[in-house]
Design a protein that fits this description.
alpha+beta; Alpha-Beta Plaits; 2 domains; six-stranded mixed β-sheet; 61% helix; elongated
């Protein structure tokens, strides 16, 4: 079954997205501390997904039960009528009641089938998570990012659900490698990936885009919210790690593709780099500008 072809409410689609985000977010394990950290995060994600699905299931059952009760009450009232001359008319009314109930039952069956499909797809994806995982940092790789963006664009097209994307780059990473060596550079990449993983929401997607570049996909987030969160990530990196990062933020617009969205974030990132690094720029589709002027304290 094609999930997107169903007339599924937005919460159901978002629950599916959260389930996919949980699966794409599974990480390769390296070391006991890393296992514990990632297991705890996956448990939080699983609880969030389960809670959302449970809320939707309760709502569906409640609405269906209410509708069924009203139709049953209607049929009982009709059955108590004893005017034989109007028997044919009452029979027609009963048939009409059945027609009222039938679409609701069909919709409930569709939603139940959709849940089953999500569960089956989740079980299937479990065996393919390594294909979508960056082996060094444990976050999503380019393929995982592309899958996440495809799901977000489907929600945007079908339900007009907004989302934003931020691209980050480690400042002077080449100098870090040259001075400390590539093994140290690898540790820096893992530490930054872990920091992102700690700071993002359960439904956000973190991916290594290439080299020292990372991307964060933020569902149900507008440009202003994404800018505030991205600058907070920049500040946390500077506070907790021996490095600084630059960021470029944008939000999906009508007519966007994955390539155009990423290109706009990359353009904003370039603006942050040329402005002195250790800052975040945003691109609203018309121009790139600094998120916070006071952030322009970095060195070129």
């Amino acid at each position: 079954m094609d999930i997107w072809s169903l007339q599924i409410p937005v919460p159901v689609a978002l629950a599916a997205l959260a389930a996919m985000g949980y699966l794409f977010g599974r990480r390769s394990r390296t070391g006991n501390d890393e296992v514990l950290f990632r297991s705890q995060r996956e448990l939080r994600r699983a609880r969030a997904v389960a809670g959302e699905l449970e809320k939707i299931a309760r709502s569906v059952r409640k609405n269906l039960a209410r509708h069924h009760a009203s139709v049953s009450k209607f049929k009982d009232r009709v059955a108590r009528l004893s005017d034989a001359k109007q028997e044919s008319a009452w029979k027609d009314l009963c048939q009409e009641a059945e027609r009222i109930l039938k679409p609701t039952l069909q919709l409930a069956a569709q939603i139940a089938n959709a849940y089953d499909d999500i569960r089956q797809q989740s079980a299937t994806l479990m065996s393919f998570t390594e294909v979508r995982t960056d082996p060094l940092t444990g976050v999503n790789n380019r393929r995982g990012l592309e899958d996440a963006l495809a799901a977000q664009f489907a929600l945007l097209t079908r339900y007009d659900t907004p989302f934003a994307l931020a691209m980050f780059d480690i400042d002077h990473f080449k100098a870090i490698n040259d001075k400390e060596g590539h093994l140290h550079g690898d540790r820096v990449l893992r530490d930054l990936a872990r920091l992102f993983d700690e700071c993002v929401r359960e439904t956000d997607i973190v991916a290594r885009y290439g080299g020292e570049e990372f991307v964060v996909v933020m569902p149900q987030t507008d440009l202003e919210g994404a800018c505030m969160f991205s600058d907070r990530l920049r500040s946390e990196a500077e506070r907790r790690l021996p490095l600084t990062i630059s960021g470029g933020v944008t939000a999906a617009l009508d007519g966007d593709t994955q390539d155009s969205l990423i290109a706009r974030a990359d353009n904003a990132l370039y603006g942050a780099k040329t402005a002195g690094r250790n800052c975040v720029f945003r691109d609203n589709g018309d121009r790139a500008e600094c998120v916070a002027q006071e952030a322009l304290s970095g060195t070129a």
